[in-house]
Hints:
Chain A: Keywords: Membrane, Transmembrane, Transmembrane helix. By secondary structure, chain A is mostly helical. Chain A has helices at 2-10, 12-34, 41-60, 73-78, 81-90, 97-129, 134-145, 149-157, 161-185, 194-204, 207-217, 222-248. Chain A has two domains: 2-79, no CATH class; 96-248, no CATH class. In chain A, helix 10 packs antiparallel against helix 11. Chain B is an all-alpha fold. Chain B has two domains: 2-82, no CATH class; 84-118. In chain B, helix 1 (2-27) packs antiparallel against helix 2 and helix 1 crosses helix 3 (58-69). Classes of the chains: A mainly alpha, B mainly alpha.
Amino acid sequence: MEELLKVIDKNALIVGFLVVGVLAFLSDQFSKKFLKSRIPGSAIAIFLGLVLGYLGGVFTDGSKGISDIEIFKGVGILGGSMFRDFAIVATAMGASFLLVKKSGVLGLVSLVFGILIFFVSGVAIAWVWGYRDAVSLSTIGAGACTYIVGPVTGAALGASSEVIALSIAAGVVKTIAVTIFTPVLAKKIGLESPGSAMAYGGIMGTSSGVAAGLAATDPKLVPYGAVTATFYTGLGCLLCPSLFYYILTFFS
Amino acid sequence: MIIYGLAILSFSFIIGQWLGELLGKLLGINSNVGGVGFAMIILMLLKEVFERKGWWKPEMILGIDFWNKMYIPVVIAMAASLNVKSAISSGNLAILVGILPVILGFAVFPFLMKTFKQ
């Protein structure tokens, strides 16, 4: 046992891969067997991650979730800012300027509208809730965009760990809401053609939610929604911690 | 070679983060601003150039695609290493911020489509 602990301690990041892999597998199985994939496995895994983060805080009284428990510190390395930002940048390869040209003006307009709608209403709700500082407001507003824009914005602006966790939680709730509402409301809002799917991806933005929601609506629409949705997070990461934050500093 | 793709990704990442640091300094925020977004744009531009020149080979793409597909696991790991315990006290806020804007988005979508069909 002592030898195993030594190996775990020496190879923290590798242990992190294993822990997250097991977590993702269990979530996927749960999603398939009990929820008929209505909620994507990734969304469940992220929620489970938050639960583990909560438990870590309860057991250790630390501020870094499960990674405050010695044998799980590798999870903290994998989820740290370097790997996080690196993986997010890599998602840009799924998008191209050429495709954005094809999706045309509608895609661009919907992207801008989408980010504005979510950021502004997220900020408004946080304001009503009692947050007043521009850093927290921006981070929560960014979290209303996606669970990636939130922490990226929070990290860039130096938001507290609590607010960053809150922005991720909001982003995950959004992913689940989009996943569930999309197939239910698709016909009502006229979401039937590739063009409308592109606009939809731009408005909603959360790529896993849009992809999962469109897959449940009409699998043919998935790539069209994903094309614009992929840009949403990138555009959000660019706008929220810079321009939007800058504007907010004048109000608070 | 896989490492070529990985190197392109790393190049975009470093330059983007550098631009983010510079913009942060320019805005007087003393932190990285939009570095990830800049890195993404650089990567997309490089992809365009490489595709045009015929240098965008499947072997190379693998090096980037691995990390592209790792982003969900990384986000899971990030979620697990956050201070969730403190955030739970504002749990209702997370649910409100997660759901209300989505409903607003569904309400706005048909108007956007109508406006653009004319």
